[in-house]
Amino acid sequence: MARLSKFTLSQSLARADLADVNLFVTVEKTRNFSKAARQHGLSPSAVSHAITNLEARLGMRLFNRTSRSVVPTEVGATFALRLRAAFQEITEALSDINQRRGRPIGKLRLNILSDSARIVMAKVLPDFIQRYPEMAVEVEVCNRAFDIVSAGFDAGVGYANTAPENFITIHIARGLRWIAVAAPDYISVRPPIEVPSDLRVHECIKINIGAGSTCNSEFCRGDESVIVEVSGRLCVNETALGVELALTGVGILYCLQFRVAEYLASGSLVNVLSDWALDAPPFRLDYPRGRQMAPGARRVDQYVKSFSLGA
């Protein structure tokens, strides 16, 4: 046969070349055109023709053929040995891609409310990054609403009643309970509090929820529902600071029960309206409609769905 002229291993392989070398490896392994043909869903003549064309392009005979046997030449045996190693690399590479498809890789940027960050994410993320070592998570804690897409975030976590338009919303964890708390020192020197409307004459620590608005105190008891617009000289935009202030006895704070559970247990804070509370929807995970959810966000979603906040 002629020397390598039409095809060399330094050239880029076309799709037909890859198909033919794959056939060649099967023929070399089975030593039979018919068996190789069955494995590839082809006719024996098609396999024989493909091998002949490959030999022509290479300018080398790969098999010695008789009516009873197909035996690789020395060149063919060496060629097959190297190709098997190459195809093993390809198989492992495809397997690695398949495995990576099922786990998050890269960076996940989350915009998270302070309450959800401390209640949910602080307990979820340590196990998350340990389980997915190829994932980096960047968290920005913020208590104001803004366009997370233009800011470059993959997803945001907020309260269920503040979901942005044109976003997919997924509820995470369990429902939330809101209560009013104060330090015993504050209650001991102030007018009694029996119903939510009594809060109007008390010093309350207001929570700024952005855009110049503050969070009203909403309570339910059985079928009764009351919304109280409280007053107070202190206004903060972060629950942790509000809790610290309430512990000093300067006022009443309306917040999530989970955020003050340890202080309620120790008596540092008390529930000033034990018969009244608001059972609200859980936190929600948002991501833009019409855009594929980041794999990391899907995993975080699965983690927080199983996390129980309690009431």
Indicate the low-confidence ranges by residue numbers: 1-12, 307-311
Order of helices and strands: HHHEEHEHEEEEHEEEEEHEHEEEH
Distance between the termini: 83 Å
Tally the beta strands.
16
Relative helix content = 25-40%
Calculate Rg over CA atoms. 34 Å
Protein name: LysR family transcriptional regulator
Pfam families: HTH_1 (PF00126), LysR_substrate (PF03466)
Family: Belongs to the LysR transcriptional regulatory family.
Domain HTH lysR-type: 17-73
Describe the structure.
With 311 residues, the protein is α/β, with parallel strands linked by helices. The protein is built from nine helices and 16 strands. The strands form four sheets. Strands 7, 8, 9, 12, 13, 14 and 15 form a seven-stranded mixed sheet that branches. Helix 1 crosses helix 3, helix 1 packs across helix 4 and helix 2 packs across helix 3. It is rod-shaped, with a radius of gyration of 34 Å. The N terminus and C terminus are likely disordered. It comes from Pseudomonas taiwanensis. Keywords: DNA-binding, Transcription, Transcription regulation. Pfam families: HTH_1 (PF00126), LysR_substrate (PF03466).
What is shown here, in short?
The chain is α/β, with parallel strands linked by helices and 311 residues long. The protein has helices spanning 15-30, 33-40, 44-58, 74-101, 114-131, 184-188, 239-247, 261-266, 295-305; strands at 63-65, 70-72, 106-112, 135-141, 155-159, 167-172, 176-182, 204-210, 213-214, 217-221, 224-228, 234-236, 252-256, 270-271, 278-280, 283-288. Residues 1-12 and 307-311 have low confidence and may be disordered.
